[in-house]
Amino acid sequence: MARILIVDDEPDMRLAVRNVLKLRGYEITEAGDGPAAIALAKENRPDLVLLDMRLPGMDGMEVLSALKKVDDTVPVVMITGYGHIQSAVDVMKLGASEYLQKPFENAQLVETVRRFVPGPSARRPMPQARREEPLPAPEAMPEARPAEPVPVSRLRPLRALAWGIALLLAGLGVYRLASGGGASYYREYPGTAANVSAMVWSDGKLLAGDWLAQAVYQYSLSRGGLELVQTFPLEKTHISGLAAVGDTLYVADSWKKVIEARRLSPGLPLIRSYPAPGNVSALFYDGEFLWTCDGDGNVVLRHPDPDLTPAASFKLPEKPDQVFKGGKYLWTLVSSTGKIYRHRLDDSLTLDGIYKLRTPRPGYPLSAFAWRDGRIWFARDGLGIIFEAGSGELVKQ
Prior knowledge:
Layout: E1 3-7, H1 11-22, E2 27-31, H2 34-43, E3 48-52, H3 60-70, E4 76-80, H4 88-93, E5 98-101, H5 106-116, H6 157-172, E6 186-190, E7 196-202, E8 205-210, E9 215-222, E10 225-233, E11 239-245, E12 248-253, E13 258-263, E14 270-275, E15 280-285, E16 290-294, E17 298-302, E18 310-315, E19 322-326, E20 329-334, E21 339-344, E22 351-357, E23 366-372, E24 375-380, E25 385-389, E26 394-396
Helix pairs in contact: 2-3
């Protein structure tokens, strides 16, 4: 019987998730905080961990990192509510297998769990379909009485409403175009991939990697906006970096700790896979070197030869998840803080400035960043918009 560890500080959430999964035949253990979860994982290794992002003491990212040290092979699904999604890209790059957003329905939960641990048949028939009543308040819920499975979405009505409003705004395609050009230029391209973790321009086309959909999307730029040209599904690939070198597309996968060389042609056929130490969080090709960066802030310049031979290495304290070389500078980005760092291209990559974007989008973290023809291109995780802006969008801290 597959064992699932639920880590959430809210007893009503653990109760709802437990009841849904126990009816499907899973063995459930629970923890209300990080230290308890780590102790349980050491004592009895789970087959899957459902880990809430917001926890008292140790937050979800710290717990994820600790669980990976206990057993790096155990899949972890991160769970969070609206307003707490600023670390989506970060946790994926730290090794999370999937990301589940509250509020979610029972079917979503079960489908996600079954991707990693196929469930046995339930030992008793499922209840007949019926009209479900709202879940009572936790303090009114008798502890000893087994509860019928209740849709998790009913536990967070206000969050559900807030999330629905956010999706509606994104669906309407928030769009603004500044008059003129230059530093003040600003444009939004709605209707694009919603969970972009990397982007790169190649041969006049924009390639955007969506870590949640596990696909690379190719867009062309026209007066009407960004038009989807083709989609390259990359099943079981958690895309954390992209770099185009001629007709080869390098794809970093932080979960599998590899860099894949793929042919830029239909299907993105695999040419070769390179083991990569650490969690590779970013790639960039500057015309001579392939830059790689991992979750510990190690930046390595590599020759794009058959062995990706290292030429130089640096250590950056900010531990970025995006790198981009432009002109005299190396730009790095930390998605969880929204901070953009500018480094001089000297022997130690000296920090030259720290920036943030002028136009805020609370709850939608920066997840990809690039320069092209003097303009910034960037994406925000969870928001189906790609942004183009002039240098005036950068505000020095």
